[in-house]
Specification:
Elements: E1 2-13, H1 16-22, E2 29-39, E3 48-49, H2 51-56, H3 62-85, E4 88-100, E5 103-107, E6 115-119, H4 129-132, H5 138-148
Antiparallel strand pairs: 1-2, 1-4, 2-3, 4-5, 4-6
The structure holds cytidine-5'-diphosphate (CDP).
Keywords: ATP-binding, Ligase, Nucleotide-binding, Purine biosynthesis
Domain SAICAR synthetase/ADE2 N-terminal: 1-148
EC number: 6.3.2.6
Length: 155
């Protein structure tokens, strides 16, 4: 698969970069959910881009971006419900896509490293923010996410 160097971020609840960038309150519901594009470029710190820049610089075509947006929201629909069954809120997440046999398909992984998950009742963080914010209990939180999804771990 030929990876497209554009990250798609959907947010259902304000957190992380959005809170920093816009100064909105962490935890507010985002209705409708937002959709953002970032360029995969470590040197530049994955800067925010838009569809016009992606087209002009050849990172993705408008058709590819349209497909990526549809698929990203489809994933939101499915995963929000899946995590809700485990009493978790899917706060935000990042997806990457690539081209395989001429088709835009989902690439990369999906894990608490690339999304934010909060306990639906206490809003306790169950994702990489535990590491980023030095909250500790990273492995325990990831295992808890797995358990709530019905995944069992070897002892
Ligand atoms: O996570 P951070 O505050 O740096 O950026 P964000 O824009 O708030 O990230 C939104 C979501 O995308 C979070 O769930 C991040 O974990 C994920 N993300 C990622 O997995 N990889 C990146 N390079 C950027 C964001």
């Amino acid at each position: 698969m030929q990876m497209i160097p554009v990250e798609c971020v959907v947010r259902n609840i304000a957190a992380g970069g959005l809170v920093k960038r816009l100064g909105v309150e962490e935890g507010i519901a985002l209705t409708p959910p937002t959709f953002e594009l970032f360029l995969k470029n470590d040197e530049k710190g994955d800067p925010m881009i838009n569809e016009s820049l992606a087209e002009t610089f050849g990172w993705a075509t408008p058709e590819q971006l349209a497909k990526m947006k549809v698929l990203t929201f489809k994933v939101n629909h499915i995963l929000k419900a899946l995590f809700a069954e485990g009493d978790m809120l899917l706060v935000d997440y990042k997806l990457e896509f690539g081209v395989f046999k001429g088709e835009v398909v989902l690439g990369d992984e999906f894990s608490p490293d690339g999304c934010r998950l909060w306990d639906a009742n206490t809003r306790e963080k169950l994702d990489k923010d535990r590491f980023r914010q030095g909250l500790g209990g990273v492995i325990e939180a990831y295992e808890e996410v797995g358990r709530r999804l019905g995944i069992t771990f070897p002892a």
